[in-house]
């Protein structure tokens, strides 16, 4: 606000005050210039006191932030799906209990299946089609909205689709129970 008043005063004065010396900028002005990157930041004499993980990663060349780049999240999702696909070949009993979402799994208290089933693909064709779609769609989502939104969209879509599937299972089971009751 103070800088805006100073700028208005200088513009209102016009060319008549061009020879007048400008006032010395305040320390807040220097801080703004440092934040905008137009002024080198003063070096701190004790770097140990200001050490953070972020400063370490920035000094090592990781400037992408906490979520990494969009490709990091995209390839992480692709890798997780492929890894879960291969786990189906190792222990199908465990995978069926913990990586498929059903009404029975929820009645047994396995709520984590809402999330784990988002990564579960049993057949190779299913995996290939979904990963192809994720790759081409995910690149655009990550480029336009960022890696965090890509992960949020993937997880929200998976969890909401599993909720709809379980709701449909419950509806169909209720319909079957009524059908059996009325015919008996």
UniProtKB/TrEMBL annotation:
Gene3D superfamilies: Rhomboid-like
Topological category with respect to the lipid bilayer: Multi-pass membrane protein
Domain of life of the organism encoding this protein: Eukaryota
Gene Ontology molecular function, alphabetical: serine-type endopeptidase activity
Keyword Signal: yes
Keywords assigned by UniProt, alphabetized: Hydrolase, Membrane, Signal, Transmembrane, Transmembrane helix
Residue stretches making up the Peptidase S54 rhomboid domain: 109-172
Localization annotation: Membrane
GO cellular component: membrane
The keyword Transport belongs to this UniProt entry's keyword annotation: no
InterPro entries: Peptidase_S54_rhomboid_dom, Rhomboid-like_sf, Rhomboid_protease_S54
Position of the signal peptide: 1-18
Residues that span the membrane, as ranges: 73-90
Similarity comment: Belongs to the peptidase S54 family.
Protein name per UniProt: Peptidase S54 rhomboid domain-containing protein
Lineage: Eukaryota, Viridiplantae, Chlorophyta, core chlorophytes, Ulvophyceae
């Amino acid at each position: 606000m103070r800088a805006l008043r100073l700028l208005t005063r200088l513009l209102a004065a016009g060319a008549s005050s061009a020879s007048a010396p400008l006032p010395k900028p305040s320390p807040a002005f220097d801080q703004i210039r440092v934040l905008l990157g137009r002024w080198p930041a003063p070096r701190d004499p004790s770097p140990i006191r200001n050490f953070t993980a972020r400063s370490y990663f920035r000094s090592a060349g990781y400037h992408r932030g906490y979520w990494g780049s969009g490709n990091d999240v995209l390839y992480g999702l692709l890798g997780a799906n492929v890894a879960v696909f291969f786990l189906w070949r190792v222990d199908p009993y465990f995978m069926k209990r913990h990586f498929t979402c059903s009404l029975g799994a929820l009645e047994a208290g396995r709520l984590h299946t809402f999330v784990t089933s988002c990564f579960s693909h049993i057949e190779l064709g299913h995996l290939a089609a979904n990963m192809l779609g994720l790759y081409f769609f995910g690149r655009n989502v990550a480029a336009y909205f960022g890696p965090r939104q890509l992960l949020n969209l993937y997880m929200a879509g998976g969890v909401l689709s599993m909720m709809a599937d379980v709701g449909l299972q419950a509806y169909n089971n209720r319909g079957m129970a009524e059908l059996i009751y009325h015919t008996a």
